[in-house]
Amino acid sequence: MKQQPALLLQQTRSNLVEQEFYGYIVLFDKNKCVKNIGKDCNYPYFHRSSAKPLQAAILKDFKTDKYYHLTPEEIAICCASHTGECIHTTILKNLLKKGDLKISDLQCTAIAPLNKEEQKKYENNYSPLHNNCSGKHTLMLLICRQMGWDIENYLNKDHPLQSAIYKKIQELCETKEELPYTSDGCGAPNYATSLSDLARGFYNVFCTKDYEEIKNAFLSHPYLIGGKNRPDTEIMMLNHYICAKAGAGGLMCIANTSTSEVLVVKLLEADMQARSIIAIDAMVKLGWINKINSTDYTLLYNKIVTTENKKPVGEYKTLFEINDFVD
């Protein structure tokens, strides 16, 4: 059967359709029932940064949280795609000290912070701490230190750490299939599953009692998970029972810890604004949040298309309804 992505969003300009956004929405509920908008035919998509809370779940296997006495703030930064602000890098420096580690031990590239205001402070003199994936890498190094594993090749696909993460992702996503592999943007191994299996993985982390530390870190510190103008942080601020994690390639995973449901949005075009509008409108249609004023809320959810002098000339309109979800 051929994949059939759904038309989820249109952007108009002067009443003409200028852009269209296709993709899939998956809804996973407490009865482990999967419903879909669009037929993805269980095609495997890479988790990208949406994998971070699943990867971090191995800290429970090794009792790393207790070994290092990790705080909720520290667990949050280990799951983050952060904006490289001082609030993020300070926590990371303290975490590295707990493992007798140096910044140079991090094998993520030194890149500009996602927060453009932070970029101006460093005049291109960035460190690996500014990499949005440095929290994940710090946790990986801490576990290697704890277990006595080599830290020089901790990103190797066959390293004991990465083997443990691979098995954890299979366990959480409840699949025994061999998972497609790639190197993520930061160099760490990254795996692919179907969107429904990814939703199941998020359910097992955020909607069960097995990983309360990770869930509570998201719920209590949404700003650490992303930062200024980041979609997952913005989404979590809409409902204090929501845990959200964005991923590159048009992916967004959202867990409602109150209703024990998971929403996964996958766009075929990696447009951050389109992804945010679709995800937030899906939450409104599901009753997870109340209708919000798009012009007052955030740039990522602004449905009004304007000229450079802010004259309205068009709009974004979602094209799906709740009754479009099918088993």
What does this structure look like?
This protein is of the alpha+beta class and 327 residues long. Helix content is 36%, strand content 20%. It has helices spanning 52-56, 58-61, 64-67, 72-78, 86-98, 116-122, 134-147, 160-173, 195-206, 212-220, 222-225, 231-236, 272-286, 294-297; strands at 6-13, 16-28, 34-37, 45-46, 181-183, 189-193, 242-247, 251-256, 261-267, 304-306, 312-318. The strands form two sheets. Strands 1, 2, 3, 7, 8, 9, 10 and 11 form an eight-stranded antiparallel beta sheet that branches. The longest helix has 15 residues, at 272-286.
Average predicted local confidence, pLDDT? 95
CATH topology: Beta-lactamase
**Which structural category fits the helices and strands?**
alpha+beta
The major β-sheet equals:
8 strands, antiparallel
What separation lies between the terminal Cα atoms?
16 Å
The Rg value, from CA coordinates, equals 20 Å
The number of domains is 1
Helix content: 25-40%
Secondary-structure element order, as H and E?
A: EEEEHHHHHHHHEEHHHHEEEHHEE
Number of strands: 11
The percentage of residues in β strands lies in 15-25%
The coarse silhouette is globular
The CATH class designation is Alpha Beta
Q: What is the level-2 CATH architecture name? A: 3-Layer(aba) Sandwich
What is the count of DSSP helices, taking H or I runs of 4+ residues?
Answer: 14
Low-confidence stretches: none
